[in-house]
Amino acid sequence: MKKILVLLMFFAVLTLSACEYLFDANETPKMYSESEIRGFIDEALDQRDSENLLNLTEEELNDFIETLLISTTLTEQEIIHLVESYLPNDLTRGELIDIIEGLLPEDRYNTVYDLEDFENVVTSMLEDVGKSVVYVQTTSGSGSGVIYKRNDNTYYVVTNHHVLREELEKSSESQQNVSVYYERNGLLNVIETSDTRIIGGDATTDIAVFRFTSLNQTFPTLNFGDSSTIKPGQFVYAVGNPLGFQYYGTVTQGVISGTTRYYNPLNDAFNAVVIQHDAPMSPGNSGGALVNLNGEVIGINFAKIVDSVASNIGFAIPSNTVQRIVNILEEHGSISRPFLGISADVYFNTCNVEFGVCVNVIAGGAAANAGLQNGDVIIGLKLEDSSEFIEILNFHDLREAILNLQVGDRVIIQYTRNGTTFESSPTELDVHPDDQ
Q1: C-alpha to C-alpha distance for 290 and 281, rounded to whole angstroms
Q2: Could you read off the pLDDT of 186-215 as tens digits, one per residue?
Q3: Which residues are catalytic, by number?
Q4: What angle do CA 264, 269, 273 make, to 5 degrees?
Q5: Considering only the top CATH level, what class is 112-335?
Q6: Angle value at C-alpha 291, between 285 and 292, nearest 5 degrees
Q7: Fewer CB near the terminus (10 Å): N or C of the chain?
């Protein structure tokens, strides 16, 4: 008990002294040996003799600890370990102060929030984002697009498949009609070029890519964020062009409402995991950016629920999905998805397990060829030559893991059957039936 009291007193003395020491940057700091440090502790105890600190009861000691700026969740041995591990034989006084302050809980310090500065950072960020969000017009309608890549004078734009659907369905590229508008200083401008070409689209994820050439005007590009790290409650901003030219460049604010949603507002072809958020959107926002506080694109807005009993339920395609699709479209112009050959319930745990995906196995598919059976629970997946499995906690994890692979990849499946864990033999991923 005495040892811990001595250590606590040492913390207290240095803490109370931390704001009093100012060192000249040109002064050579004095070094303190271990014996001198022990002298500081003895001196502190001598100064507190009148309080008879060495005879405190257990209850009084607990009260004493709570009056110090030390976390009461630490055990005596943990505090002893912290002090002993952080006190080498020779330390400058400044180093001692830094060590003690680093060990103190955050409520030891006063934090000042400057809302005006925060607001300035956000508005500046959104001003930059707006320069990379364009207005997209076709013969059948309009929407928004996000410039994500530049190659000399050629710019690449991601938007929704449904924005360009009719143009994508035209038999000849020369019949496609896509106009691109941008705003500068409150004025709308059209990009005068005949070199606007649709690269490709994917109805399943509602993503499409086109490019345009601009000789007289340069545009910044936006970076994609990692949508796998977003959390409910995170601030987001929707930037787009609702209801056409009149409301060009509208910014709305909201929060992430859900990170894993399954919603099909368009047609049976759409089949992707989406982000739910409550930033207000209207027709024309389709293809626009959903950005975080860093100005990174974490989603491409594409739909909202329109219902008399619902409000502010909007959806965006996650940036990780967007990046995967645009890369494939740039390289191939179309999508061929890998297929594991299983089906599963998207929402419910049907095998009474804490994690994993309870599967039904499709005859002749990759999973069946690997030896899986109905009722097996997939908990991991990896490429044949990879050292570690990707952890599979739910259907969303499995879907993303498969979609990040390629047709023809050989994978090993980790699964459980009747409580026992197995690893399958390598099996080759097929082409998804919808893409054949």
Answers
A1: 11
A2: 788 888 766 889 999 998 899 999 999 998
A3: 162, 206, 286
A4: 50
A5: mainly beta
A6: 150
A7: C
